[in-house]
Amino acid sequence: MTSTAPADHLGTSRRRGLGLIAVAIVLTALNLRTAVTSVGPVLEEIESGLGISSSLAGVITTMPVLCFALIGFTGPALSARFRDAHVLAGALVAMAGGLALRSAAGSFPLFLAGTVLAMVGGALGNVLLPSLVKRYFPTRTGTLVGAYSTAMGLGATLAAVGSQPLAEATGGWRWALVVWAVPALVAAAVWLAIPASPGVSRAGHAAVRMRPLLRSPTALALTGFFGVQALQAYVVIGWSAQYLRDSGLSAATAGLLLGLNSLVGLPLSAVIPALTVRPRVQRPLLLVFIACYVAGWAGLWASPGTAPWLWMTMIAIGMGTFSMVLTLIGLRARTPETVAALSTVTQGWGYVIAGAGPLLVGVLRGITGGYTGMFVIVLIGVAVLAVTGWISTRQVFVDDEVERSVPGWSPAGRCTDVLETAGVEAPASAHVRTETAPPPS
After folding, report:
1. Rounded to 5°, angle at Cα 304 from 313 and 287
2. pLDDT tens, 208-246?
3. What Rg, from alpha-carbon coordinates, does the chain have?
4. Rounded to 5 degrees, what are φ and ψ at 420?
5. φ, ψ for residue 410, nearest 5 deg
């Protein structure tokens, strides 16, 4: 009895600790897009309130994407030096402060400063959550990615649908932006409630060098795939509501259609990761997404006033590529450290690619007065998405591709079969069976 009681206690503590981490991951994901999707439905009111042009409005829609790219690169270094819980709690508090600042802004520069601060939580959450899933839940990647991508979609939906009604109810756009600071603070509090594990060393969190990933064709393809799918998403988030308003729909209807786009993605976010972990399903799934993108964008361009709900639904199905690429990032690397590096490179440079989309739409709209440029950009993007997605679904590990030219780069051959989960109340471990890379397709 005396020998089993401590083991039972440690097992219970481990389960509780991992359960709290899972809750924190999901709550963090709920906040990753609220600061972004709350802007589109009230973009016209923000333009008027700040006295800015269409081109500067394009900067507003692009700034979050650029912040995701630049701030995201600091994620692995921060995770290697500090507890994951503290990094994400601090990021979420910064997000809440940024949301408050930009809602009070009376000028364009101050609004941008608040936006940058608000994007800290989203940027660090973007790059760290895939590696946390790999570290703490190595045998449940599909389940956890499905849970947090669904939460991300739910947060995006609530912000998209709720912003316009909040603006109308409060007499302006400011409360529609600041209200999303509340769930960010709740998520931060949960991370702070996770106690440290006694005796866990930061050596288990050594950051992997990211530059050698440029030698991996799969890492480059994943970067392009992520970047172009994000470009599609941020054009939808930043400009589709305004396009629908300019096409004759009311502001409330445009906001609801943007919310519908996010709402359709919720059940897909729960299902797609579980499908993506099955190699034989990946490419057929990709082809479905590409077909839906083409149909949705073409329909929205040719006839925005006829069945816009159908076009936005088709685009929403195409946007399932987001859940797919998040899952692929975890599948294409062997260790949590490599996943963190791959996630950072893929999302960091991917968001640089994505940032060009909303900005170009705003500039071209200002020059031409129309949206033809927007549709040309997104349809070319769909073609690129098909190519990079096809390469990304090859059954290989980026660790192996880089190791051929940079021996000893990956920790896969150096780590033991135990990964300690820093941040759990009692020392907890996950035994990871060494995998052999399947042959390239």
Report:
1. 40
2. 677 888 888 999 999 999 999 989 988 887 788 889 988
3. 22
4. -80, 135
5. -85, 140
- Residue spans of the domains in the chain: they are 4-431
Residue type, position 328, single letter: L
pLDDT interval class at 410 (50, 70, 90) = low
DSSP H/E element including 419: strand 418-420
d(CA 162, CA 41): 9
In a 13 Å sphere around the CA of 97, the CA atoms on its Cβ side amount to: 12
Of 379, 364, 321, 382, nearest in space to 346 by CA: 321
Residue positions counted in the chain: 441
Is residue 40 within 8 A of residue 240, CB to CB? The reply is: yes
**What does the pLDDT read at residue 334?**
83
* Residue environment code for 419-436, b if the CB has 16+ CB neighbours within 10 A, otherwise e: bbbbbbbbbbebebeeee
- Name the token pair of 187: 């998520």
- Taking Cα atoms as reference points, which of 262, 277, 391, 396 lies closest to residue 320? 262
Residue whose pair of structure tokens reads 């190699």 in the numeric block = 279
Q: What is the pLDDT of residue 126?
A: 82
- What is the spatial distance between Cα 25 and Cα 32, in angstroms, rounded to a whole number? 11
pLDDT mean across residues, the chain: 81
Digit-coded pLDDT (tens) for 121-131: 888 888 888 87
Q: Which fold is adopted by the domain 4-431? A: Growth Hormone; Chain: A; (1.20.1250)
Residue 395: is its pLDDT beyond 80?
Answer: yes
Cβ within 8 Å of residue 380, ≥6 positions away? none
Share of the chain above pLDDT 70, in %: 86
